[in-house]
Every structure is written in C-alpha cells, then in structure tokens.
Amino acid sequence: MDQMNLAAAGPALGSNASYIEKLYARWKESPGAVAEAWQTYFTQLETGAVPDSGVIARAGAEARPSCIPENEVLAFAQRQVAVQQLVAAYRNLGAEISDLDPLKNQPARVIPELDPSYYGLTDADLDQVFSTANTYFGRASMTLRELIEALRETYCGKIGAEFMYITDPEEKRWWQQRLESIRSAPSFTPEAKVHILERLTASEGLEHFLHKRYTGQKRFSLEGGESFIVAMDRIVEDAASRGMKEIVIGMAHRGRLNVLVNIQNKDLQALYDEFDGKESAESLPSGDVKYHNGFENSVPTASGPIWVSMEFNPSHLEAADPVALGSVRAREDQLGDREGNQVLGILVHGDAAFSGQGIVQETLNLASTRGFGTGGTVHIVINNQIGFTTSDPRDKGSMLYCTDPAKVTETPVLHVNGDEPESVALATQIAMECRLRFHRDVVLDIVCYRRLGHNEQDTPAVTQPLMYKKIDVHPTVRELYGKALEENGTIPEGRAQEMDRYVRDRLKKSENPRVIPESLRAKHVVDWSPWIGKARTEPATSVPVAKLTELGRAITAVPAAFRLHPLVIRVLDSRRQMAEGAAPVDWGMAEHLAFASLLSEGHPVRISGEDSGRGTFSHRHAVLHDQDRAKRDVGEYIPLQHVSRYQAPFTVEDSPLSEYSVMGFEYGYASASPNALVIWEAQFGDFANTAQVIIDQFISSAEAKWGRQNGLVLMLPHGYEGQGPEHSSARVERYLQLAAGDNFSVVQPTTAAQIFHVLRRQVLRPYRKPLILFTPKSLLRNPNVASPLSDLTSGGFQPVIGDAAVDPARVTRAVLASGRVYYDLLKKREELSRNDVALIRVEELYPFPAGLLTTELSRYPGLDEVVWCQDEPRNQGPWNSLFPQLLDLIPSSVRLSYAGRDENPAPATGYAARFKREEAALLEAAFGTPVKSWRGVKGE
User: Fold this and answer.
1) In sequence order, what are the beta bridge partners of 383?
2) Which of 55, 88, 854, 936 is 20 to 30 A removed from 426 (C-alpha atoms)?
C-alpha cells in the first residue's frame, strides 16, 4: 500500500482488509475497474473528505460476508463516519487546546467538537479498531484510543496548526502528512540541540548585558521571546542550504537589536556607540534611534554564506512590511528569479500589530499578484500576549488569534510555545518547507511573553499584576532548556553555565559571540556605491531625432494578428505621426518616449498604480488588449517591452486597490534598484493620503535619518476641474512642508517636453532623490500642452519657464503660477489683451529655483508687482511655503500679491456654480486687484 495506508477496519470491513487492499490497488491502476461505491469511497479518502455513512455502508456491503447482518454493517459505518469527523475536528480545532502559553496565563478552553461523545462515540468504542485510511500516522487501522492519542500529540501539543481552510487539496494533504507522520514532535541530533542552546545563550546574554550596562535605556528587549533567535537562525540555515542568495528582513523594534547582533553579526562596538549617543564621522543630518536602524551583512552558514539585509523601520510598526517585500522583488528581478528561489522575505510582527494594523492585510493581499508576488514570505509573530503597551488581551481585537488576518488569504499558521525551542525550530523548518514547496506565505506565531514590559522604562505590573507575578518567578527559556539537556545527558552538568560565561566575556570585550572568517562573506547584489557622494550636477536629457523616430516606430508597432480597439488604433496612428515630427508630441507619447529611451540605454522602468496600464484618464495605453482574446497575458501586448533586442526590462502593473502597501512596495523596489526608473502612480493625487506614513517616514526623511538614497517617483494627478473636494488636490502643501535639506524634488510640469525631460533626468542624474511629480488630468489632451519633437531633441527640463510672448519693456506685473492654472491665465490674458502682464511658470517648486526666477524677473525693468496665482485655497497649495522665499527674492520696491481662493478647510467646492465663480474671481484678481498684497519689505 502507498502513503494512503488504506485498509478497512472493524467487524464489517476489517475482516476483509486484504480484499479491500486489492480493490484499492485495482482502483489506483484503473478507477473504473471497481464498483461505483468503492470509486466514491477511495476518491473521498484521497481528497481528505469524510465519506458519508451511505458510501461506507454500500462499500462495506460489497465486502460483507453473508454471516454478518446488514444492520451491523450500517451501525459500524456510522461509527466510522463519526471517527472521521473527529479526525477532521482535530485538524480544524486542535490548535485551540494546544499547550502554547509558557505562562499558562489563560484558562483552558473546552472544545465540544474534540470530545468523541459529540459524535455519538462512547467509552465502549475506545478499544474498537477503525480505519485510519485518511490519516498519515503510519498505520492502516487503529483503535479509537490510539487514534485520539495520535491526534492530540499532533494537533494539541506544543505546536498548533491552522491550515484546513486552504482550498488546494494537495497543499492541505501536504500539511496533514507533514504533521501527522511525525506527530508534530521534534527530533534533533545532540549537535543540533547544543546549537539551539548556544543561540538561546547568545540571545539572552546580549539582553542581560545591555540591561546592566545601559540601565533604563530603551532597547525593546527580546527577553521572554529568545526562541525567536532560534527561529531566525533556522531560517537562515535552511535558506542557505537550498541555494538562496539573499534574505531581506522587515521588522519593528522588539528583538531588533538581537537580530542585528546574533543573526547579522553587527559590530558590537558600533552598537555600544549608538547606546552612548556618539556621532560617527558619517553622521547624518538627523540620524535615528538605534532600534530603527537597518543593517546588511554576509552571514556564514553550514552551507556557505548568505547576504542578510535588515530594512530600516520607523515607529509605524508594520510600515516596513511592503518596503521589505518591494526590495525582495527587485532583487529577484535582477537575478532573474521568477519563482522566488533565490531571495527570501521575512516579516517579523508583534501580536497586536499583526491584528491591528491594516497594512498587514494589505501586504498579505499582494502575495499572489503578478506584479507584487515574491514567491512567498515567512511571517513571524513575536506574540507577547499583551499587545502594544499594557493592553488587556480582551482589548486587543475581535479575533481568536492575533494571526487571523492571515486566513483571509488562506495563509497557513503554525502556533508554537516559545518556551519549547526545539518545537520552535521544528515549526520554523516546516514553515520554510511550505514556503519553498508552494511558494506562498506562511505564518509562525511564537507564543511567549515580555519580561520587561513595552520598553525598559515601563513598569508593566502596574496594569498587569497577575501576569507579571508569574513572569517574575518564571525561569528563562535558556535556563529551562539548558537544564533539560543536562538532565537527559545531551550535555554535561555545568555546560550551560559555561556557555553563558563565554558569551558574557565576549560581550564585555565588544566581540560578537560568533566569529566570521573573511572567506565566508557573500557579495551583495545591490551596489549603491556609484551614486554615493556624487555632485549635484544636471545631466543632458535630450535624445537625437533619429533615435526618437526609431523608438517611436517600435512602440507603435503591434503583431499582425493582434486586433486592437478602434480608439487604440487612432492613438497609435497619431503617435507614429508624432515620432516622425508630423504632429506635436502629446503627454502620453512624451512619457512613452522617455520610457523607451531609458530602456534602450539600459535602465529598467517599472510603473504601478490602480490604472497604470491604460492610465486613469486613458492617456497612456501602455498595455494593449487583443479584442478577440479575453485570456490575460495571451491577449496582452506591451510595446515598451519590444523597444530593442538588448533593452532593459519594462514593467507596468495595475495594482490592487491599495495605496499604503503598494507605495511602500515601490519604495522598497526603488531602494534595491538604483539604476531603474520606479514610479508609483495615484489614481487621483489625493489617494496618496492613505499612504502618508510612507511619504513622511521614508520618502521625505530616509536620507536624513538613515543615509538612504532613493529615486522613487510619485505621479500624483492634480488640478482643479470642478470635480469636488475629493479629487482636485494632490495636497501640494504637504510635500512642500516636508521639503528640506534637498530631500526630494517637487515638480509640476505643464508641457509634454517637460515630462519627457524630468523623467529622464530622474535616472540620468549621478545621484538619487525621490521625485514628487504633480501630473495633470484635463491637460493630458490639451493641444497647448503638446510639444514639438524638437523640444525633446534639444534642451532639458526647465525649473522656470519664462514668458517669450510679451515685450519685457512693457511689463509692469508678473504673475507666477504652477500647473494647469497657467493655461487659464493665458486664455484670460488673451481675452483682456493685457500685454503688460508676464506669465511665468514655476515648474519646480522644490528645490526652489530662486536664482532662475530672479534672472527671469530681472528681464522686466518696469516691474512693480509680482502676483502668485494658484487654484488651491490660500491655506493650501504652494503659497504659504513660497511666500517667504518670494519676499526675499523680489526687490523691495516691488509689491508681492496673492490671487486665488480664500482659505478653506476642504480642498475645493463640490458645487459646479460656485467653482466657476471662484475660478472667475481668481483670474480677475490676477489681472486686477489681488486678494492680498504685501510690500516687499521684510516684516511689513
């Protein structure tokens, strides 16, 4: 018999076991060779289903000797069904009574479905033999007593498994076989057990040493959860043994310093310097606290070195999740690793954060998507059972387990007792096997406790007196495990204390407990050195006309058999004319030519957003769809992937309806792709509101805090079109408020040539800065925005665009504007024939082009007033940020004025009539009497 271990049991079926085995073998060879009842029975057993009593009765009747009454067959069949229901119950619910809590802090749960009597089984059935054909305990039949014992050992011990909600029968059977075949019992060699003790000793030793040397300093210690280091060590070893090259870790505070030292081998003196508050020679403008900092290093394993990167993380606990996975995907793409066999992502969570932070579910949802999958992530929950600070478990959420969000994506979960390091190691090993076999996410929930409270300045007994009375007298996991190994003879008595003294001596000498020979160092695949310390020079971004024409032909060609939508045919036809110089280049074609030219020069391009393939406003059409084919991939054609034979990769992804996770993912992707143009595009600019954490904590400040450059582009559609308060403003003011220290560029281009040059500039610069790019909506097809091809073949991006249509000698007023309002001003000036007004566009709002603007204003000798005009209310938009800079810039004899909407708590009105009145009023003010004026005298 094969692994099904099929045999009938009991008075009706058991007496014919050999006959049934023959039937099973015949069915395996040819299903139609056995009776229909047996076909149904065997099929249900193989799929893990519980055969109903009728199926068993019919099958049993065929094998029943004539001397056995039919009613006995049916009665046994019903009991057999009850047994199989009990098996299913243990698989589904066994984790709820597992021995997971080291503190025994919660009352034991009673699960009626795990009692045989729930299914009508009695004590008289305990010694009855039943079929175990649908289990993997290595026996064809067992007594009910033996079966219950095996089920409890497997599903109710130190490991609790949740996987029965998985719909894939193969994967579900794999979990059953993997756990039941060993009854979830660890079995390690003496050498492996000593290694586990060494890791526990190093973990505990570091925490005790830091606690004594830096009393009262926050470090978010791992004490109570030291087995987490055992899990991390096991993952690193397993990954290396399977040929993986890199690991990327995203985690918050708890245990972070321990991972840095005991997994990644961070230099201890560097860590001590951070505790001492020392500034290094490479001190950053702001820097960050020690438990936010990232690190990367080569880690030695028994199978060779592997590169391990720890992502930087702010106090937004789970914000690093999508960032880490974006970095994983970028590394996989660079290695050509489409399956996720060479790079592994590990996300480490707190219990309250996993259940409470929505970004966790958003990130889980990315796992199986085409554009954001990484081949599976190992999630580890350091489950302190208390939540963020002093939460009562009843206040943490509405779920049974903190890991329940994982069930939404059918992610399997292994809960494990943190005081059982061998069980932790086994559960970790199984989790890794699942991830590598099925390329899917898996969650490891290490149930432990927090010995010192939320941080080392906290007194948790104030709010959790009973819990901390138990913790105060509870031995550490190292003490428990060391004593167990000594008692069972694995190590000699006193060896555990020798290990502890060795670790403490090393820590006192600022020496890591584990020494890394130089020969065991791996090479990191991501190299940022070409962009570090480079001068802020501007590159040439123009492209020769012959090259643009060649690229234009390539990106407007489609396979002969590909049937396009009539609208797309017109788009491609017009783009061919643009490439030939027969028509001005519109916004969509300028984007395409920028992308195509970068691709041909060896720079990968990646753009994602909720409508990025087509473009929210139907201007891009980067992905073409065959109108005769509905199947994805087969019915898609992406011209930018066919620019040239040796081009770099082009990726455009329509993302899930998520901003926070996807922006974080793209930031992480850009952090590992310095040579690429990486773009996150909002459907509407205000959608970035829900990703504000990524903007505040990563995009705007990562270089100042962590010394990390990043070239991510945010495309934010912005402009007042009378569409109400929700989709008018991309909140320009927020980015300008964050702008400081040359941290990023804020640009609002108004021509197709400008978008072409600014996208190319972003990658061709010798350094990397994020780019906040406010893109238009209605202007995308405004003929005034289109540029002649010659503007792409010469010149470059212009931070300030002067007014070439007026005579400088006649100008008395200069109206400064940014974005779409410029075209309204242009139209109004023509209506009024106001040739004494110059219209100047500020295309780059930050870094503010003060020198260029001063030069432009100096062209007008009769200038007596400068007006800033904007669509946004006065308390929003660029005005408040630019006002003091304009005051400093313009001559003292020139008046500075504002023309725009009044202050408003909402970005725009939702009434069309009011919008028109406001628009008319601000245009009148720009050419007449502005809303507010200041003399160009400081302090006035």
Assistant:
1) 447
2) 88
- Tell me what pLDDT residue 243 has: 94
Are the C-beta atoms of residues 820 and 719 closer than 8 Å to each other? yes
Domains of the chain: 10-180 (no CATH), 190-513 (3.40.50.970), 585-620+647-783 (3.40.50.12470), 803-934 (3.40.50.11610)
Q: Which H or E run contains 380?
A: strand 377-383
* Number of C-beta neighbours around residue 65 at 10 A: 9
Note whether 708 and 312 are within 8 A (CB). yes
> Is the separation of the CB atoms in 651 and 626 below 8 Å?
no
Residue 325: name the closest of 373, 370, 358, 362 by CA: 373
* DSSP secondary structure string for all residues of 390-448: S--GGGS-SSSSTTGGGGGGT--EEEEETT-HHHHHHHHHHHHHHHHHH---EEEEEE-
Strand partners, 677: 605
Residue matched to tokens 């058999």: 561
Residue 788 confidence class, pLDDT cut points 50, 70, 90:
very high
Model pLDDT for residues 474-505, shown as the tens digit of each residue: 999 999 999 999 999 999 999 999 999 999 99
Residues 756-767, buried b or exposed e (16+ Cβ, 10 A)?
A: bbbbbbbbbbeb
Residue with tokens 């000798």: 861
Give the single-character DSSP code of 343.
E
Share of the chain above pLDDT 90, in %: 70
Contacts of 184 (CB under 8 A, 6+ apart): 153, 154, 155, 157, 158, 159, 161, 423, 426
> At 276, which amino acid appears?
D
**CB atoms < 10 A from the CB of 858, how many?**
11
Residue 295, helix vs strand vs coil: strand
Q: Is the peptide bond before 656 cis (omega within 30 degrees of 0)?
A: no
Rg (alpha carbons) of the chain, rounded to whole number: 34
End-to-end Cα, the chain, rounded Å: 95
Task: Name the DSSP letter for residue 726.
Answer: S
817/867 Cα distance (integer angstroms): 9
> Which residues sit opposite 801 in a β-bridge?
841
Alpha carbon distance 334, 336 (integer Å): 6
DSSP per position, 223-237: TT-THHHHHHHHHHH
pTM for the whole thing?
Answer: 0.91
Which pLDDT tens digit goes with each residue over 458-474? Answer: 778 788 888 888 989 99
* Mean pLDDT in residue range 205-214: 89
Q: In this predicted structure, what is the pLDDT of residue 480?
A: 96
Half-sphere exposure of 160 (CA within 13 A, CB side): 20
pLDDT of residue 518: 59
Enter the DSSP assignment of 697: I
What are 610-623's pLDDT values in tens digits?
999 999 899 999 99
**How many other C-beta atoms are found inside a 10 Å radius of the C-beta of residue 390?**
16
- C-alpha distances (whole Å) from 638 to each of 208, 677, 760 are 57, 17, 20
Residues 6+ apart with CB under 8 A from 404: 355
Q: What pLDDT score does 516 carry?
A: 63
Mean pLDDT of the chain, nearest integer: 89
- Tell whether the model's pLDDT for residue 2 goes beyond 60: no
Q: List the structure tokens of 316.
A: 């937004």
The residue with greater pLDDT, 52 or 372, is 372
486 CB burial (10 A radius; 0-12, 13-18, 19+): middle
pLDDT value, residue 929: 84
- CB of 524 closer than 8 Å to CB of 296: yes
Choice between 754 and 684, residue whose per-residue pLDDT is larger: 754
Q: In the 3-class helix/strand/coil scheme, how is 55-78 assigned residue by residue?
A: HHHHHHHHHCCCCCCHHHHHHHHH
User: Please, which residues have CB within 8 angstroms of residue 795's CB and are 6 or more apart in sequence?
Assistant: 542, 753, 757
Q: 413 vs 110, 149, 358, 435, 447, CA distance in Å?
A: 21, 23, 19, 12, 12
pLDDT at residue 184 in the model: 97
The residues, any chain, with a CB within 8 Å of residue 740's CB and separated by 6 or more, are: none
Per-residue pLDDT at 17 exceeds 60: no
